[in-house]
Each structure stands twice: as C-alpha cells, then as structure tokens.
Write a structure and sequence with these properties.
Layout lengths: L13 H12 L17 H14 L12 H8 L22 H11 L4 H11 L14 E3 L17 H10 L8 H11 L4 E3 L1 H11 L11 H8 E3 L8 E4 L2 E2 L1 E4 L2 E5 L6 E5 L4 E4 L4 E4 L5 E5 L3
Parallel strand pairs: 1-2
Antiparallel strand pairs: 3-11, 4-5, 4-11, 6-7, 7-8, 9-10
C-alpha cells in the first residue's frame, strides 16, 4: 500500500490498519495489545507512533504523533524524496503551509496596502494549519490576553500565567485544557498567547494603527471600530457574536479559537479547527459578518 494522506488520531481506513499492523510488528504498542484488527486511529496508536518517532528521528519536531510521508517511509523502509520548499520572497512565513494555501494568500496580499500586508504577515507567524497540525500550537488561547503588550513586546505565556488564569476563570481551563497548556509552555518556553480580540488588539498596537494602550472586546472591535463589508480583503475582521478573527487572503483567516485549539489558519467559508486534546477536526459556526477597520 502506498502513502496517500497524513494519518492522525481520529481517522480510520485501510491505510490506518496497514500502518497499525506495521507498528505492532515493530513492537510499538503496549504489551497488553495482542492483535490489531480495528481500522481506527486511537490514543494507543498515537502513543505507538510517538514511540516509533522518538526511536527513529533525532529532531523533536518530527515527534508529532502523525504518520506523514516521512514517518510512513521510515515505517516501511521506503525512500521518499523530499520536495524542496520554495519560498516566495517576502512571504517566507507561509512556508509551513502547502503551496496551494501559500500561493493563494500571497497573491491576495499583493493587492492590499503595505500596512494590511504587514498585519497579516505578523499574524501568520502564530497560526498552525489544522489539517497538518504540529505537536503543539504556536500560540495559546489565553482569556484576557493581548498578542502584544502595552510596551509592544509579544505576550509570552508562563506556567504562572496559566495557573492564575485557571484560578480566576476555571471555565476556560477545564476538561484538560489547563494541563495541556502547561505542557505546551513546559516543552516550548517562549510560547505566546492571547484571546480572539487580543489578537487583533495586539496587532493594532504593534503596527501603530492605534496607540499602545488600546483595548477592546470582540463585539466592540466590530461594532465600533470598523464598517461592515460584503467583500472582505486581507486585514479585515470576520466576526460572529463574541468572537473575531483576521482575514489574511486566499479565503483564509486567523483566529485564536480556545484553550484546546490555540491559534489556527481556517477557511473563511468553512471553519474547521484541530482540537489538540482529542486529536480531531471540529466544524465551527459560520462567521456572520465582516468588518473593514476604520483606522487603515
């Protein structure tokens, strides 16, 4: 069987079963596992993949629990030619996304003002592709946090910040979210974070569109600081009551979704986000309107 797609927790199929059987042959499952029959990718298989990757790859970036092209090749002793990443000058931040996404966003960013382009490229450095997620998010959802502080430094998240947030507002950290976020900052010191409005507030601060003391909620940002538009372009704000994001072009937006998600690049017309706790993609409610920020 040939590699046809990335396999991750929550998926099922003949290719999943095929990979599981190979992992079993290599002794990657716990001793309690006596045979492999199911076609589903569960927590036991995720653990088996991680075990295989840690024994096979020296680069920790490869320890993501996903059976991608490189892990598949290692499992089955195949040689898979790596495809060189061709950067678009000025848009290197898009290299973590596939060529289709990269080219679509870059093309749209060429059509807008320099300040809109700068805001979008800034935001893109913190977002992950939900269809090809890394082991951890690059930016956490932190209730009440702004992406850039009043001194314009990026908002780095510490274990103490997570614990204090959980003590004040436990409803945003329950169900394993607090433990997950602590794991993220423990493994990746320097991880940043904010909430949905804090993303846009921080970007407005950083790029001097508003002063460094500017702050607002998602609803206030939309209702008081932008004009509605039916033709969103890069730099505009997609909105639904209580939640806001940033259009970055190519039909995509960036949003800080929640404690189990962090910051993700999502399709404007089909919001699907990767949940790091259950390893599944979740469909989110549609955006209801779009705003053109008045200060641009």
């Amino acid at each position: 069987m040939n590699f046809t797609r990335n396999l991750r927790k929550g998926m099922s199929g003949d290719d999943v079963l095929y990979a599981k059987q190979r992992l079993f042959e290599l002794g990657m499952y716990d001793e309690e596992t006596k045979k492999i029959e199911k076609r589903s990718f569960g927590s036991d298989t995720y653990d088996a993949v991680i075990k295989f990757q840690t024994q096979t790859f020296s680069d920790k970036e490869e320890w993501d629990g996903v059976i991608g092209k490189k892990t598949w090749a290692a499992l089955f002793g195949e040689t898979v030619a790596s495809e060189p990443v061709v950067s678009i000058p000025g848009y290197e931040v898009l290299d973590r996304f596939g060529d289709e996404i990269k080219n679509a966003i870059a093309a749209d960013l060429e059509t807008v003002s320099e300040i809109r382009r700068a805001v979008c490229l800034d935001a893109l450095q913190f977002a992950i592709d939900p269809y090809n997620p890394p082991q951890y998010p690059l930016s956490l959802y932190i209730r009440g946090g702004n992406l850039y502080n009043k001194d314009l430094t990026v908002n780095t998240i510490t274990a103490a910040r997570i614990r204090s947030g959980a003590a004040r507002q436990p409803e945003f950290y329950d169900g394993g979210r607090e433990e997950f976020m602590l794991e993220v900052v423990d493994n990746n010191p320097g991880t940043v974070g904010c909430d949905c409005s804090g993303q846009n507030v921080g970007l407005m601060r950083k790029h001097e569109i508003y002063d460094a003391g500017f702050d607002a909620t998602a609803n206030t940002l939309f209702n008081s600081h932008c004009a509605r538009t039916d033709n969103p372009k890069p730099g505009d704000w997609p909105w639904k009551p209580g939640h806001i994001g940033l259009c970055v072009g190519g039909g995509y937006g960036i949003e800080h979704v929640g404690g189990a998600y962090g910051c993700q690049l999502t399709k404007i017309s089909d919001r699907r986000c990767y949940n790091f706790l259950d390893g599944k993609l979740h469909r989110m409610g549609a955006w209801e309107a779009f705003g053109d920020p008045k200060r641009y």
